[in-house]
Write a structure and sequence with these properties.
Number of domains: 1
Keywords: Membrane, Transmembrane, Transmembrane helix
Shape: extended
GO cellular component, one term: plasma membrane
Structural class: mainly alpha
Transmembrane segments: 7-24, 30-50, 57-78, 84-103, 115-134, 140-163
Protein name: Membrane protein
Largest sheet: none
Distance between the termini: 8 Å
Helix content: over 70%
Order of helices and strands: HHHHHH
Organism: Streptococcus equinus JB1
């Protein structure tokens, strides 16, 4: 048990150091995972098109576009993939914040006492989404460094725990 905790802590610490030094690697890995999912989704759509009795042109089009988009993403550089991931995240957070803002106004109109907290979280989400959208490179560095720091903390925790055993 002691050796396992020590070695897992050392490995986590080393991976954390690597990710901290190379922050774009983290977001690029997320991008590659998304690219593989999109690529496989394209094949699923083509399979659904070919096995369906009522062949929809939309399944065929979605399948072809997903495969092409997946190939483009898989062949992208680390830098462009990191920016793409941050841009996708930015749009998702921005749209979620806008929907949350609309819901907050509806809650306020209905008289919910917690509507102001909902509205303030919506404004924070919108601001974060705008920041990520206009600074994808800086955001990718932040996410990569944060992931590195978290893994380093897990590693130090595992190492210190092994010495207490």
């Amino acid at each position: 048990m002691k050796g396992l905790s020590l070695w897992s802590g050392i490995i986590a610490l080393l991976i954390g150091l690597f990710l901290f030094i190379h922050p774009f690697t983290t977001t690029a890995m997320i991008g590659w995972i998304i690219a593989i999912i999109i690529f496989l989704s394209g094949f699923t759509s083509l399979f659904m098109y070919s096995s369906s009795v009522n062949r929809s042109l939309w399944y065929l089009l979605q399948g072809i576009l997903s495969i092409v988009f997946g190939i483009i993403l898989l062949s992208s550089s680390v830098m462009s993939l990191s920016s793409a991931v941050m841009t996708i995240a930015a749009y998702w957070i921005l749209i979620s914040g806008i929907l949350r803002l609309i819901g907050g106004f509806q809650m306020k109109k209905a008289g919910f006492f917690d509507a102001n907290r909902f509205l303030s979280s919506a404004v924070l989400a919108i601001l974060l989404g705008l920041f990520l959208l206009f600074n994808p490179t800086l955001s990718a560095i932040f996410v990569g460094r944060l992931a590195g720091l978290l893994l380093m903390a897990v590693g130090v925790s595992g190492i210190s725990f092994s010495f207490k055993l």
